[in-house]
Automatic annotation (TrEMBL):
Coiled-coil positions: none
Domain AAA: 17-191
Source organism: Pseudomonas asuensis
Gene3D superfamilies in alphabetical order: P-loop containing nucleotide triphosphate hydrolases
Cleaved signal peptide residues: none
CDD domains per the UniProt record, alphabetical: ParAB_family
Name of the protein this chain belongs to: Chromosome partitioning protein ParA
Gene: parA
PANTHER family: P-LOOP CONTAINING NUCLEOSIDE TRIPHOSPHATE HYDROLASE, PARA FAMILY PROTEIN CT_582
Length: 270
């Protein structure tokens, strides 16, 4: 993968693989994926977004084509191991420095194919090997489920980030199941590092947010110190297929995602 107009990077480098996971939908996984990728790219990092969600929202957000027009998506990546990874990585996206492996609706059927594999949880990790040492960051946007697609993302990741909808009384619903799944995957991926829960739509003044913050700390044992607030401009930036920073760099949430990128880059540098 390469930046626009530059030669493909040849030198080996450390690649951080971040799975953004929560099997509850609508908690900001894709928003975090896109805006984290954008801000890391702004720091000069080479980033590849891997869209593992059948809804393919990340792909529709930053891809130059609609996912339905793409022949080689994560569905084929997981089910056709004879195809080289170069078929799948699209260097040109709507965010400079961010490459994309498209998701597609065909991922809905990928679980059945993965179950036929001798190591069904480790297919993605094997397929992403050629990117290691090339990209600085691989960010995996997981689907809202705990089935094999998410398990593959967790097995392939070096780090886990868990967005939690702080502004909802049901923000922690089912997340105990996610922690159990993570514990199971650490038998396959014992070096997986949990970056912690990332509070989304958080407002320190609201009692519900205060309660979710306390409970999330008790459940996960670690919170990302950067908290993401609420802004209508997230939906607006999504509508015009751009990042929040590119839409309005002065927005408070845009600045929070910039701070998040700096924090994660520092946390994963060791």
């Amino acid at each position: 993968m390469a930046r626009s107009g530059s030669a493909v990077q040849k030198e080996e480098k450390k690649t951080v693989v971040i799975a953004i996971a929560n099997h509850k939908g609508g908690v900001g996984k894709t928003t975090t994926c896109i805006n984290l990728a954008d801000n890391l790219a702004q720091m000069g990092k080479l980033v590849c977004v891997v869209d593992m969600d059948p809804q393919a929202n990340a792909s529709q957000h930053i891809g130059m084509s609609h996912p339905a027009e793409i022949n080689y998506t994560t569905a084929e990546l997981l089910t056709n191991p004879e195809l080289p990874l170069t078929y799948f990585v699209h260097d040109e996206t709507r965010i400079d420095g961010v490459a994309l492996i498209y998701g597609s609706m065909a991922l809905d059927n990928a679980d059945d194919a993965l179950r036929m594999e001798p190591r069904p949880n480790e297919v993605l990790r094997d397929r992403l090997q050629p990117l290691l040492g090339k990209a600085d960051y691989i960010i995996i946007d997981c689907p809202p489920s705990l089935r094999l697609l998410t398990s593959n993302a967790l097995a392939a990741a070096t780090h886990l980030l868990i967005p939690v909808e702080s502004g909802s009384p049901y923000g922690l619903y089912g997340l105990a199941d996610l922690t159990k799944r993570v514990q199971q995957i650490t038998r396959i991926n014992p070096t997986l590092i949990n970056l912690g829960a990332l509070l989304i739509r958080h407002d320190d003044r609201q009692l519900v947010c205060q309660n979710i913050e306390q409970k999330a700390m008790g459940l996960f044992g670690k919170l990302v110190p950067v908290k993401i607030g609420t802004t209508t401009k997230i939906n607006q930036s999504s509508t015009v297929q751009t990042s929040l920073r590119m839409f309005d760099s002065t927005n408070k949430v845009a600045k929070q995602y910039k701070e998040l990128a700096k924090y994660i880059d520092n946390e994963t540098a060791a």
